[in-house]
Write a structure and sequence with these properties.
There is one protein chain. The chain is built from two helices and ten strands; from the N terminus they run H-H-E-E-E-E-E-E-E-E-E-E. With 151 residues, the chain is mainly β. Helix content is 14%, strand content 40%.
Length: 151
């Protein structure tokens, strides 16, 4: 009898898993905007100016989350996010992510989670402008980003 029970569990399973690129949740109808081809179009339409080192392009916000595209030519200043944890998906470039005093080499495709109140910054080591999709959780308030002085 046990083999029959096991067979039923295997056959029924939990359903097919979502493909890695599927966007799940209540905003799934808007998922196409996050397709890599569309993120590249948004970056192309919002290039970093010749004298800009850092640029944020808003994509989406509700009380639970905020999504932005961040571009970095050289480096961003050390800072914390007082209100939000962030998840960073590196889309372009490669470099060093400094988190809580430690250096982490990063490259295209890497995903980095940074809890709120942790000092961090990105230094671009690539020839092209670095770019990342950054997801804040929850959505940040107006004083979320706090610059940190270094010695």
């Amino acid at each position: 009898m046990k083999p029959a029970i096991i067979a039923v569990v295997v056959v029924l399973g939990l359903g097919a898993p979502a493909a890695p690129a599927d966007w799940l949740g209540p905003e799934a109808k808007d998922a196409d905007r996050y397709a890599p081809r569309n993120l590249e179009k948004i970056l192309a339409a919002n290039p970093l100016g010749e004298r800009e080192d850092f640029k944020v392009t808003p994509l989406y916000e509700n009380p639970r989350t905020r999504h932005v595209l961040v571009q970095v030519r050289d480096r961003e200043p050390p800072h914390i996010h007082a209100d939000s944890d962030i998840t960073v998906w590196l889309l372009r470039g490669n470099g060093i992510m400094h988190i809580a005093g430690k250096e982490h080499p990063v490259k295209v495709g890497d995903v980095i989670h940074i809890p709120r109140d942790v000092v961090h910054y990105y230094v671009n080591r690539g020839l092209e402008v670095g770019a990342a999709l950054v997801v804040y959780s929850p959505a940040p308030g107006p004083d979320d980003r706090v610059l940190i002085r270094t010695k």
